[in-house]
Specification:
The chain has about 250 residues and is α/β, with parallel strands linked by helices. It is about 25% helix and about 35% strand. It is globular and about 65 Å long.
Amino acid sequence: MSAYESLAACYDELTYDIRYEKTLTFFERLCAREHVQPHLVLDLACGTGSLSMLLAEHGYRVIGADLSEEMLAEAEQKARDLPEDIRPFFICQPMQRLRLPEPVDAVLCLLDSLNYLTEPEDCRQTFTRVYRALKDGGVFLFDINTPQKLRALDGQVFLDENEESYCVWRAEFDEAENCCYYGIDLFRKRGALWERSFEQHCEYAYDPLILRQWLLEAGFARVECYGDRRMEAPNDGEQRIYFAAWKENRK
């Protein structure tokens, strides 16, 4: 079963503690420092659209893109709670073949979504596509799980549960493939019974220095790295780091 096919329906329930507001604050602090005010924002790998909704509620025009039809269906359902004139516009596209109807001021790709590109060439192609999708002076903000974090997950088991769902994650790092595999057993309550499904997720351990090089090769004029939603350089052994890549402003 493909990633997020079964998990989509209970993703929000199992990830209720993700602090999207903190991510938005970090994004807006970066923009304020650069004296720019984005209007049209792409939420790349938007999943169930939680960040897309938050951006829309804060006055941004939003496009949400994701590869998973199941996750986008959840996002569309949630968007119905917003006034029609501010609802995000959702599209089903893989990152490496991104194609937008109009250029955007900013692209956000969060929650280690880039790690899900398990072929390095797909990552490089994504950077090129994002660069083309941005207006001059635009910013590409994304995060990754660091290689240190992914390697440390090897052999770990995690449990998420609520009254309707029970989810067990088992992680294994493959040095030869430079990937961390997550085997996910999901149990969902169906009346008096529990229905079981299985998904396998995989994240590639990208070297931050190589990512910076690929961003510059894609055309970005400036690339900065930050600790986890902190306006400072990442520490040694950081679990999650953020990149801000700026497209040259030719005005």
